[in-house]
Amino acid sequence: MLNQSTLCFATLAVPDLAAAEAFYVQVLGLQVSRRFAPTRWISLDVDEQGGAGLGLIEDPLMARPSPASMLDLMVPELDALVARMPPQVTLVEAPGPTLWGSYKAVIEDPFGNRLGLVQCSPQAAVRDTGQPGKNE
Fold first, then answer.
1. Number of structural domains, the chain?
2. By CB atoms within 10 Å of each CB, which of 28, 41, 43, 100 scores lowest?
3. CA dihedral (54, 60, 65, 69) positive or negative
4. Chosen domain end from 10, 45, 63
5. Can you tell me the distance from the alpha carbon of 82 to that of 68, in angstroms, rounded to the nearest whole number?
6. Which residue range(s) make up the domain with 89?
7. Dihedral (Cα; 76, 82, 86, 89), 10-degree rounding
8. Residue 76 pLDDT more than 60?
């Protein structure tokens, strides 16, 4: 079943692929790993081991960001990363602790897609007891 699968891509629809590529590559420092010109789709590496990728597809009709949706990316040093963000990056939520024990900031791309930047540590892990409201 799917519990033995690995996430390979999460794809965001954007109205302008060139502008999206510029933001994700030049501003966030990701690298393009695949490019499919006929479909106006690219893949960006977000995993040093080459596992998961972020797909961007140009589709103005589908590009409808929602504040209820967010793509979280694990980062090693959140405060340093946020301090280096250029002014064109919209910081939605400043770095801070979450209720579940991680440390997180939220930014938006130029189209309103929200990206969570998450720093976790083994000490921040929450153990699920299987009882609603009774996590440790």
1. 2
2. 100
3. negative
4. 63
5. 22
6. 65-136
7. 100
8. yes
Same domain, 15 and 59: yes
Per-residue pLDDT of 15-70, as tens digits, reads 999 999 999 999 888 999 999 988 899 999 887 766 678 999 999 888 888 877 89
Q: Are residues 48 and 69 in the same domain?
A: no
Assess whether 56 and 81 both reside in one domain.
no
Which residues lie below 8 Å from residue 100, measured CB to CB, with a gap of 6+?
A: 124, 126
Name every residue whose Cβ is closer than 8 Å to that of residue 111 and which is 6 or more positions away in sequence.
14, 15, 16, 20, 63, 65
Task: Select from 61, 60, 73, 64 the least CA-distant residue to 107.
Answer: 73
Taking only the tens place, the pLDDT of each residue in 50-62 is 667 899 999 988 8
pLDDT band at 7 (very low <50, low <70, confident <90, very high): confident
For residue 75, give both structure tokens: 């980062």
Whether residues 124 and 104 fall in one domain: yes
pTM for the predicted model, two decimal places = 0.79
Q: Are 91 and 85 in contact (CB under 8 A)?
A: yes
Q: Residue 2's domain is classified under what CATH number?
A: 3.10.180.10
